[in-house]
Amino acid sequence: xxxxxxxxxxFLRARRDRITPAQAGITPFxxxxxxxxxxxxxxxxxxxxxxxxxxxxxxxxxxxxxxAVLEALARALRLTSVERAxxxxxxxxxxxxxxxxxxxxxxxxxxxxxxxxxxxxxxxLLLGNRGEVLAxxxxxxxxxxxxxxxxTSFFTFLIQDPLARERIVNWTxxxxxxxxxxxxxxxxxxxxxxxxxxxxxLRAADPQVARWWDDHTVRDYASVAKRIxxxxxxxLTFDIEIIGAADQPDQRLVVYTAEPDSPTxxxxxxxxxxxxxxxxR
Length: 281
Known about the structure:
By secondary structure, this protein is of the alpha+beta class. Strands 2-1-5-4-3 form a 5-stranded antiparallel β-sheet. It starts with 5 loop residues before the first helix and ends in a 7-residue tail after the last helix. It folds into 2 domains: 6-91, 434 Repressor (Amino-terminal Domain) (Orthogonal Bundle); 110-274, Beta-Lactamase (2-Layer Sandwich). It contains 14 helices and 5 strands. A hairpin with a 2-residue loop joins β4 (234-245) and β5. Helix content is 47%, strand content 13%. α3 (40-47) crosses α5.
C-alpha cells in the first residue's frame, strides 16, 4: 500500500480553497462550484498533471511525488517561499526515528548565550524545539510579568497562561503567528511525539487555537511586533527579532527590540531597576 500523507492532502486542499480561478489566471471550468477556490481539475491542469493523479495526491494515495510536480503545484497555488518549503516537507517527510530512543535534553548553544548576555539591556529568551525555553533574562521576566520555567514551552505560556493574554495587547496576532510557526515545525519534525502531544494539548485548551491549526497557515519563526500593557510602566512596543546559530538551527534567540529614544527604550532601564536586574538564568 502507498504511504498515506493526510497532512499533505489537507494542506493542498486548504491552499486550493484560498485561490480563485481569476487569481490563478484561468477561466473557471464549466459546472457547479461548491467553493470559490480552484476545483481539483482546474488545479491539475495548472500543474500539468491528470485530474486522477492530483486526486490521488490530495487523498494521500500517491506513492511518489516528483520535485517537478511539487514545483508546479507551488507555482499554481502562488505559494510563498515558506509555504513552498512546507509543501516539500509534507511530501518528503524525514525518515522515522527509533521511537524507543529518548531524545537528549536540549542544551543552550554557548554562542547564543554570549549574545544574550551582551543584549542584557533588552528582554531576551532562547528557544529550542517545541518552543522550549532554554534561557531567559530577568528583563524578559519583568516585561512579561513572571519567570517562565526553563524546560517548559513558551507556547504553553502564550496560549494557556491568562497573564499572557492580559499583558500582550495584540495577543491574537501574536498567538496565531506562533501556531503557524508550530505547524511549520511539525512538518519538519513529523515523528516528534512530544511536539504532537503539545499541539493536541493546545488545540484542546482553546477552540480558537484549534481553528488556527486547522486552517493550515504556516510561517517560519520570524520578526513580529508585540505590544505589552505593563501595569506599572504602561504601554510598551517591541519588534521581535530572531537570531539563529549555524550549528544549532533548531535554537532561536528571541530579542525584544525597541526604537532608540522611543518611550519603550526609555522605560526599559527603569523596569530593570524595579526587578533587581540583571541576572540571566
